[in-house]
């Protein structure tokens, strides 16, 4: 039995050495953790500040996006109004152009141009026919101006 007791004592001593080594390593780890606790606290504080700044930035970004959307909507509304006005003016212009074209056709049928032979024979006849053309142009211009003023 003496040998069994000795074996148990040796085994107990080995286990005690293992526990002492483990306790020593644990003590070093705890010391390092305590030393790094200050750094960890600083890191947590920095992270908190960064999070707060990010939240404030997101709030400003949302506000800016809302303002931009409002301004953009106002511009779109104004552009639609201008498009409608332009379409109206284009329609009125087409109507006026059609009326002017019809008036020109009517004027040409009422006062036909002289033939080439007649124009060669007499310069006086040319001058008489040019004046009605100029008068007709003046009338057409006057009609155009009246129509444009009527659009306003």
Helix content: over 70%
Pick out the low-confidence regions.
Answer: none
- DSSP summary, beta strand count: 0
Termini gap: 126 Å
Please identify the oligomeric state: single chain
Which class do the helix and strand fractions yield?
A: mainly alpha
Mean pLDDT across the residues is 83
Order of helices and strands: HHH
| Sheet having the most strands | none
Number of helices: 3
Report the principal-axis shape. Answer: rod-shaped
Radius of gyration: 51 Å
Strand content: under 5%
3D architecture notes:
The protein has 152 residues and is mainly α. It has a domain at 2-81. It is 95% helix and 0% strand. It has 3 helices and no strands. It has helices at 2-110, 116-121, 123-151. Helix 1 (2-110) packs across helix 3. It is rod-shaped. The termini are far apart.
Compose a concise summary of this entry.
This protein is mainly α and 152 residues long. The protein is built from 3 helices and no strands.
List the helices and strands and how they pair.
Elements: H1 2-110, H2 116-121, H3 123-151
Protein traits:
152 residues; 3 helices; mainly alpha
């Amino acid at each position: 039995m003496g040998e069994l007791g000795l074996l148990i004592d040796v085994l107990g001593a080995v286990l005690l050495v293992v526990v002492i080594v483990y306790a020593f390593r644990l003590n070093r780890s705890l010391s390092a953790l305590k030393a790094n606790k200050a750094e960890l606290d600083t890191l947590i504080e920095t992270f908190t500040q960064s999070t707060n700044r990010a939240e404030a930035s997101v709030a400003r970004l949302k506000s800016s996006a809302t303002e931009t959307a409002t301004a953009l909507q106002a511009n779109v509304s104004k552009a639609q109004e201008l498009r409608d006005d332009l379409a109206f003016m284009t329609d009125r212009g087409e109507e006026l152009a059609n009326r002017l074209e019809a008036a020109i056709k009517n004027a040409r049928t009422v006062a036909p141009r002289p033939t080439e032979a007649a124009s060669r024979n007499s310069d006086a006849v040319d001058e008489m026919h040019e004046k009605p053309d100029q008068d007709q142009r003046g009338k057409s211009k006057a009609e155009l101006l009246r129509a444009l003023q009527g659009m306003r």
